[in-house]
Amino acid sequence: MPRLLSDPNLNICPNYADDAFINTRLQLTNENITEAQAIVILRNIWQAGNTADKAQWQAQREEDRERQENIERLEDEEQARQEQDRRDEDEAARKEDRKKNKYKYTVVPELDVPLKTVILPSSYATRKLDKGDYVELWYFTNDGLDDAKLKSSVDEDAMIMATLAGGDTAWVSAASTRNAGAVIDDQNLTFKDFCQACPRIITAMQEASWPVDRVTMMAMFWRNLQVHDFRSMRDPQAQKALLVYQAEQRKRWHIAVKSAAGAYDLSRINEVLLERTRANVYLEERTRSDNKRDYRVSVIFSKRCERA
To answer: What is the CA angle 292-243-249, rounded to 5?
Structure first.
C-alpha cells in the first residue's frame, strides 16, 4: 500500500452538487437513481475512502513512532555502550597506573612527621619482593640501606647496558640491577647483621602484599634460627652453620615454589640438614686452616733453603 503523504483528517469532502461534478453525477444517475441520490452516493464513497485513509494514516503514524523509538533506543544503547567503554578504558588505565605507580596513590593519613627514620630499601630489592622472589638480606642491613640512600636519586626508568648470565649484553632498567660487588651473601653476614635485617625484610614483605601465611612462615623461620641452641654455643662454627642453613634453605624454598615440587613449611628447621650443614662448615674451616698452615710452613721452608 502506497505511503500517505498528508493527513486525511484535514481533507474536506467535495461539494458533489457543484457543476464541476456534473459528469460524475451523470454516470450514476438513471431511471432508478436521481441526481440527489447520486450526490449522496458520491459523498458516501468519499467518506468511506477518507475513513480508510484515516485508519491507514493512524497505522502509519504508529509505525513511524515505533520506528523512531527503536532508532532512539538503539542510539541511546550505542551511546551508553560507548560511554561504558570509555569508563572501562579509564578504569583500566587507572588500575594500570596504580599498579605501575602504587606509591603515587598511597593514602596520606593525618599523622605527624615520624621521629623514627623510615626504612627505604633499594629499588632492586623492592622489585624482587614485589614479584615474590628471593632477595639477599644484606639489602636490609645498615650497609644495604646506606647504599640505597646513595642511589635513591637514580631514575627508575633509566636504562643501562648490563651483561647477562650467558655473557650477552642488553639494555635493562637501572632499578632492576644491583651492585654485585657490594652485596654480601647471606651466609657471609655477621649474626648481628642477620638479626638486624630480618624484621626489616618482614616489614618490606608486608608492604609488598605478600600473603599473610607466607610472611608468618618467613618470620617463624628466622625466629627459630635465632633462638636455636646453636646460637648460644661458644663454637663460632655453630652460628656460622645457622647462617649457611638460612641462606641455602631459603634459596631452595624459592626455587621449589616455582617448580613441580611445590612449597613446604620452611619454618620447620630440619635438624638433620642443620647438622650436615654444621659438619660442612667445620670441614671448610678446617680445610682453610690447614691450607693456611701449609702455606706458612712452605714459606718458612723456602726461606731456610735460600739461606742454606
So the answer is: 120
- Taking the chain (308 residues) in runs of 10, the rounded mean pLDDT of each run is 90 92 90 91 94 94 94 95 95 91 83 79 92 96 90 56 63 57 91 95 94 96 96 92 96 94 94 95 86 64 64
Number of H helices, E strands in the chain: 8, 2
Query: CA 198, CA 68: separation in Å to the nearest integer?
Result: 71
d(CA 141, CA 198): 9
Q: Please check whether residue 194 is in contact with residue 243, taking contact to mean a CB–CB distance below 8 angstroms.
A: yes
HSE-up of residue 276 (Cα within 13 Å, Cβ side): 7
Secondary structure element (H or E) that encloses residue 34, with its range: none
What is the amino acid identity at position 237? Q
Give Cα 270 to chain centroid, integer Å: 36
* Cβ partners under 8 Å of residue 21, min gap 6: 14, 15, 42
* Torsion angles phi and psi, residue 215, rounded to 5: -65, -45
